[in-house]
Amino acid sequence: MKKNLKKLTLLHSNDMHGDFLADKLDDKLVGGVSLLSGYVCKVRHEEKNVLYAIAGDMFCGSVIDSEFHGLSTIQIMNLLSPDIVTLGNHEVDYGVAHLLFLEKCAEFPIVNANLYIKTNHARLFDPCRIIEVDGMRILFIGIITEITLMKCRSDKLIGSFITLEEAANEVGRICNAYNSTDVDLTVLLTHIGLEEDKKLAAILDPAWGVDMIIGGHSHDFMKEPAVVNGIPIVQAGTGTDQIGRFDLVIDTDENRIDSYSWTPVDINEDNCPRDPSIEEAIRGYKDQTDEKYGRILTKLVRPLTAPSHVAETEIGNLFADILKDSLGMDIFLLASGSIRVKEFGPLVTKGDFDQCFPFDDAAHLTYWTGAQLKHGFLRMLRDETLEGEHTEFYQVSRGVELEYDQKTHSIVKLCFEGQPVEDERVYTVGLQDFHYKNLKDSFDLEHEDLQKNHPQREVASSCCQVIEERLQSGQHQNARTEGRIVIRFTEESWEKLKKTEAAKEKAQ
To answer: Long-range contacts: 171-174, Cβ < 8 Å, 24+?
Structure first.
């Protein structure tokens, strides 16, 4: 009997992070929403059945996005016209209430199966959406876990899945509920990272009929899908320099994929026409931000670098020292993930600073015994962190000397101002608000235990303002790495870290 086959082209992006503007590379334009839109429009014109999905993190990472608190991003995304979007962890950077406002501004559906209000378990978003194309019914389910959604942990009213098993069970419930509606293709839009996607795929029941996973969060640029449990898993790097493309043949009688090909497509002026309407919209936002963000804050002695999130860096030392000195504490622990560029200066504008350090948190003064400090550093230096997974690493301020042996999982040396850290002595430690609120996850410490040492308090409402003020106060500032953090990696972890960072570098 002849099969009833239909073609579908499924385009996808992830982790765009407000990457609106094209870059110049070898005299060619690369990336940017104008060229991305041009490619999507071109495919929509060339192919009969086309859908475009975004797997989270549209927000955060650009001056324009930060200045307008995501409203600019939503309006630009409206012009890009995705067919379906799921949430990433950075969608809640401006708060859950603001996210719900932005959803009302969106002219495209946003799906998420697992964010809910704890008091009555009401979902904040539609868990899924069926999109009909040429008689085909495509089911999209949005998934994110609490492991990646750390911003919501401090909100006592908002809940989320914690484990992959819970996420898988929810996928099963949704798939079972729609089995009677003749779904031809089931797509999970996730934002949990490639390795977690693989684990999730491995525990999905084939009877649920999940056909593919389009993911985000780990910024993986892939040459081919990873296939687990018969399910192809893909990502498209980060930003707008590339887009993923599935060309599928769907057997609508059997409700399954008959065949497919997948390729990452480079977004550049060779492949993609420009979209003048989007360029005009972006220009309007950029004109408003250029005057504010073009002013010069300072000129450093030389460009400072932050080549790795899992190492002491020059930018990290500069910022941690500024916060320590300005706020008057023994130690400041600055999250490496707060630093979003690899090079900073020598000429630093307001826009350069905001791009480098976009997360404006309050600063908290806490009190740790030496024993708690050692315990917290051991938590920070666990294997997942040292292998480049999405756990937090911290830059330390002047005076700290930390040496760690990964093979024995032990701290070889921990000194403060030249003296060994004493277990019973209490040290004042500064933290950004996000990491203060996620103390248990980052350092395996409880607020109640630190409170026993001395009451904690907020000492600055804005870390950004503290650093910016110090940068403006003098020219020719400098910072160097000086062995504050020394890690003796195992060979296996060192190789994993190099591969992870090389993949991220290539994606960027």
So the answer is: 171/113, 171/141, 171/143, 171/204, 171/208, 171/210, 172/204, 172/205, 172/208, 174/113, 174/127, 174/128, 174/139, 174/141
DSSP string, 288-312: HHHHHHTSEEEE-SS-EE---SSS-
Residue ranges matching CATH 3.60.21.10 in the chain: 5-286
Locus of tokens 């899992």: 310
**CATH 3.90.780.10 in the chain, residues?**
294-507
Q: Note the CATH number of domain 294-507.
A: 3.90.780.10
> Which residue shows structure tokens 């040459």?
223
Within a 10 A sphere around the Cβ of 399, how many other Cβ atoms? Answer: 15
Mean pLDDT is lowest, of 88-92, 209-213, 233-237, 350-354, for 88-92
H, E, C per residue of 430-470: EEEHHHHHCHHHHHCCCHHHHHHHCCCEEEECCHHHHHHHH
CA–CA dist 334, 317 (Å, integer): 9
SS3 call for 401: strand
Partners of 158 in the β-ladder: 117
**Tokens for 229?**
């449990």
Fold of 5-286: Purple Acid Phosphatase; chain A, domain 2 (3.60.21)
The SS3 of residue 479 is coil
C-alpha distances (whole Å) from 167 to each of 10, 88, 142, 190, 364 are: 24, 15, 10, 10, 34
Q: What is the pLDDT of residues 121-175, one digit of tens each?
A: 778 889 999 999 999 999 999 998 765 555 555 555 565 655 788 889 889 999 9
Q: Got the DSSP string for 104-132?
A: HH-SS-EE-SS-EETTT--BSSBSEEEEE
- 102-126 in b/e form (b: 16+ CB < 10 A) is bbeebebbbbbbbbbeeeeeeebbe
The Cα-based distances of 116 to 83, 156, 482 in angstroms read 23, 11, 46
**381 neighbors 487 (Cβ within 8 angstroms):** yes
Q: Can you tell me the distance from the alpha carbon of 334 to that of 316, in angstroms, rounded to the nearest whole number?
A: 7
Neighbours of 435 (CB within 10 A): 21
Mean pLDDT of all residues in 96-115 = 89
Please state whether 411 falls in left (phi above 0), alpha (psi between -120 and 50) or beta.
Answer: beta
Beta-carbon contacts of residue 363 (< 8 Å; ≥ 6 apart): 323, 327, 430, 431, 432, 433, 458, 459, 460, 463, 466
* Among 236, 235, 185, 233, residue whose Cα is nearest residue 211: 185
Tokens of 107: 């002219």
The letter for the amino acid at 22 is A
251's tokens: 């057997």
SS3 at position 368: strand
Query: What is the Cα–Cα distance from 492 to 480, expressed in whole angstroms?
Result: 28
Q: Which of 421, 418, 12 is nearest to 222 (CA)?
A: 12
Burial 455-485 (b: 16+ CB within 10 A, else e): ebeebbeebbebbbebbeeeeebebeeeebb
- Of the two residues 24 and 272, the one the predictor is more confident about is 272
